[in-house]
Write a structure and sequence with these properties.
Radius of gyration: 18 Å
CATH superfamily: Ribonuclease H-like superfamily/Ribonuclease H
Number of strands: 8
Structural class: alpha/beta
Shape: globular
CATH topology: Nucleotidyltransferase, domain 5
């Protein structure tokens, strides 16, 4: 996993977050919903962030990709009772950038009805999102606070989400890599094929695996309190 370098202040924020989350999820009635987006490219590349590699010497190696590959922008959330999603950010079949306005539309017109269909108790659910601008804009946070009063895990939320911490997000440390290992086995040829594969593979994720993911999240919280740095030694187990 390629991650951003942690700043000195991040270690304190990560530990405080982990301690607070362990207190919260200690209750059997609490449900945590972890969310995020990712780009799935038709050529098999799942984009999380742009990364550059620097070295003292030129390795003279090239990684060739088309500049504008076909892709989809996927949003999902994970909880122990199921996966909400996928939701594709698109207009007339074309992938679009996630903005605050589009994020709010998704929350209101997709996430809220999905949670109602699952018959979950919204008052007991904690909603996590990272610090992306579309997530933390004023309009977005207003809707998040309305849907999950006093239960927002986010920058500017009730529990501050620590920056540069994909190793603490179930979407990042589990879901995207898991889907990539399944989706591209079918060798989708079109964007529609790619979306069908994503939908079908999400639908077949067993609930037992989701329970284990949340248990793994708790293990990560405890380990992070001890060491603070990125968790490279914890492997998801089925």
């Amino acid at each position: 996993m390629i991650v951003q370098k942690l700043l000195p202040s991040d270690f304190v924020q990560r530990r405080l977050f982990c301690e607070r989350m362990l207190e919260i999820i200690a209750s059997d009635d609490v449900m945590l919903m972890v969310s995020n987006e990712a780009y799935f490219h038709l050529d098999g590349y799942v984009n999380k962030q742009n990364c550059g590699f620097w070295a003292a010497e030129n390795p003279r190696e090239l990684h060739q990709r088309p500049l504008h590959t076909a892709k989809v922008s996927v949003w999902c959330s994970i909880s122990k009772v199921g996966i909400v999603g996928p939701y594709f950010f698109e207009e007339e079949g074309a992938t679009i950038t996630v903005t605050s306005e589009r994020y709010v539309e998704m929350l209101c017109n997709f996430v809220r009805p999905q949670l109602r269909s699952l018959r979950v108790n919204m008052e007991e659910m904690w909603f996590q999102q990272d610090g992306a601008t579309a997530h933390t804009a004023r309009a977005s946070m207003t809707v998040v606070r309305q849907m999950f009063p006093q239960h927002a895990v986010s920058r500017f939320g009730d529990v501050p989400w620590p920056p540069r911490s994909p190793d603490l997000s179930a979407c990042d440390f589990f879901l995207w890599a898991y889907l990539k290992s399944k989706v591209y086995v079918r060798k989708p040829r079109t964007v529609d094929d790619l979306k069908v594969s994503i939908r079908e593979d999400i639908a077949t994720v067993p609930q037992e695996m989701l329970v284990n993911v949340i248990q793994n999240f708790e293990e990560r919280l405890r380990t992070c309190i001890q060491q603070g740095r990125h968790l490279s030694d914890i492997i998801f187990r089925k």
